[in-house]
Amino acid sequence: MKDIDYPLARERMVREQLVERGIRDDRIIEIMRRIPRHLFLDREFGPQAYGDFSFPIGFTQTMSQPFMVAYLTECLELKGNEIILEIGTGSGYQAAVLSELSCAVYSIERIPELAAKAAAILSDLNITNVHVKNGDGATGWKEKSPFDRILLTAAAAEVPKTLLKQLRDGGIFVGPVQLEGKGQQVVKLIKQGSKFTITRLREC
Fold first, then answer.
1. Are 55 and 41 in contact (CB under 8 A)?
2. Which of helix, strand or coil describes residue 75?
3. Does residue 193 contact residue 169 with C-beta atoms inside 8 Å?
4. pLDDT at position 39, please?
5. Separation CA 200–CA 202 (nearest Å)
6. pLDDT single digits (tens) 49-72
7. In 40-142, where does DSSP find H-type helix?
8. Around 35, how many Cα atoms within 13 Å sit in the side-chain half-sphere?
9. What is the pLDDT of residue 25?
């Protein structure tokens, strides 16, 4: 399959992986129909970049499958004016999706090579409202807080309290946490004053 087939691969991804599996936000569907996911991966993956699976991006890290990117984004309930903190930039693809649904995205990546590569790809795509830095995501980005939304892209044993302190009142935290034994589950926390309401969502 040649480059000219990428739009077809994206269309199939949207139809089979997003719409048929329950993604309902038309904005997310349209954005993922347009963003060139394959550019966030090594060229040899080609149109397979739109397959229903995660991809290795080096340093034992992966880019999440398209459905999970869409699902986590939908759980954030974005209106368009939010400031988002993303923990785990990875390839930069999730940040690219968030960039079109929010005011600004502050993304932290602990592996310097991945942070630099993601920042370069985002810049090449003229995405100017995503800010990437290399650092420990567990400590957040205090100088840019409070955030309207916080997205954790990789599973943690528990939600870091430092991050929750950087969430605005009424803000939403979404991310996978490790279950006892095996597996992961996406959780959603909504901050209400000094308390949080938690909803346990799908396993992933």
1. yes
2. helix
3. yes
4. 95
5. 7
6. 999 999 999 999 999 999 999 999
7. 66-75, 93-99, 112-124
8. 29
9. 97
In whole angstroms, give the CA distance from residue 112 to residue 131.
Answer: 14
For the entire predicted model, the pTM comes to 0.94
Which segments of the chain have a pLDDT < 50?
1
Among candidate residues 33, 64, 39, the one with its CA nearest the CA of residue 117: 39
Give residue 179's pLDDT: 82
* CA–CA gap between residue 200 and residue 203 (Å, rounded): 9
Please classify residue 138 by burial: count the beta carbons closer than 10 Å to its beta carbon, then call 0-12 exposed, 13-18 middle and 19+ buried: middle
pLDDT at 170: 96
Nearest Cα to Cα of residue 204 among 180, 181, 175? 175
pLDDT number for residue 42: 79
Q: Token pair of 111, please? A: 């592996």
* Residues that are catalytic: 64
C-alpha distances out from residue 29 to 13, 158, 185, Å: 10, 30, 23
For the chain, the maximum distance between any two Cα atoms, rounded to a whole number of angstroms, is 53
